[in-house]
TrEMBL record:
Domain RNase III residues, every copy: 1-125
Species the sequence originates in: Candidatus Woesebacteria bacterium GWB1_43_5
Localization per Swiss-Prot or TrEMBL: Cytoplasm
NCBIfam families membership: RNaseIII
Gene3D superfamilies associated with the record: 3.30.160.20, Ribonuclease III domain
Catalytic reactions of this protein: Endonucleolytic cleavage to 5'-phosphomonoester
Name of the protein in its database record: Ribonuclease 3
PROSITE patterns, sorted: DS_RBD, RNASE_3_1, RNASE_3_2
InterPro entries reported for this sequence: dsRBD_dom, RNase_III, RNase_III_dom, RNase_III_sf
Function recorded in the entry: Digests double-stranded RNA. Involved in the processing of primary rRNA transcript to yield the immediate precursors to the large and small rRNAs (23S and 16S). Processes some mRNAs, and tRNAs when they are encoded in the rRNA operon. Processes pre-crRNA and tracrRNA of type II CRISPR loci if present in the organism.
Record bears the keyword Cytoplasm: yes
Annotated catalytic residues: D42, E114
Subunit structure: Homodimer.
Enzyme Commission number, as recorded: 3.1.26.3
Length: 221
């Protein structure tokens, strides 16, 4: 019995969590894909990680906690968890997806980890998910805290990529004041919609502030 199987009582849920939509399309819907489980697992993962870092860092402000959470649930980090659990070798993929390197696709692997968490929640409940996440996902939280967190624009870029949205676009929508002391207002647009805006003494500062506001908006959804 492998690591993943040992976590589950209902093996059918694990099989579904490992089933990519390409396999379902190729096998004419013989089995449900892992997309719904991924949706559930994403919510469970965010709840557990949010609660864990809230508890561990009582003196940190919201912006710091948001940045730390993003660094723990991003594609790169979740793909690393997939490697620890040997997820890639156990995926059910179509021949086409297999041929294009699906078993090493970080985005696909990260999505599958979320699906596994969703399946585990249905099978064993929240406590089992907490145990899995603490053991495999936030074991290096101390190192994460020591490492400078990414700037807001980089984190926002990563977040929208994870959610398969169009890249953020930053626009200066207002500039006031004399040339030597201007204030710029920058708006960040995602998928054609204005998400947030902020002002700063230069365009770079305003863009970073707008990205931070956008992060707060998107992670509340």
């Amino acid at each position: 019995m492998n690591q993943l199987q040992s976590l589950f009582s209902n093996n059918n849920l694990l099989v579904q969590a490992l089933t990519h939509k390409s396999w379902v399309n190729e096998h004419k819907g013989q089995r449900e894909s892992n997309e719904r489980l991924e949706f559930l697992g994403d919510a469970v993962l965010e709840l557990i990680v949010s609660a864990e870092i809230y508890r561990r860092f009582p003196d940190k402000p919201e912006g710091y906690l948001t940045a730390l959470r993003a660094s723990l649930v991003n594609t790169q980090h979740l793909a690393g968890v997939a490697a620890k659990l040997d997820v890639g070798e156990r995926l059910f993929l179509s021949k086409g997806e297999e041929a294009t390197g699906g078993r090493r696709n970080k985005s696909l692997l990260a999505d599958t980890v979320e699906a596994i968490i969703g399946a585990l929640y249905l099978d064993q409940g929240l406590e089992a998910c907490k145990k899995l996440i603490r053991e495999y996902l936030i074991t290096d939280i101390a190192e994460k805290v020591k490492t400078p967190l990414k700037d807001a624009k980089s984190m926002l870029q990563e977040l929208v990529q994870n959610r398969r949205l169009k890249a953020p676009i930053y626009k200066v929508i207002k500039s006031i004041g004399p040339d030597h002391a201007k204030t710029f207002t920058v708006e960040v647009e995602i998928d054609g919609k204005a998400v947030a805006s902020a002002a700063g003494t230069n365009k770079a500062e305003a863009s970073q502030k707008a990205a931070k506001m956008a992060l707060l908006q998107l992670t509340k959804k």
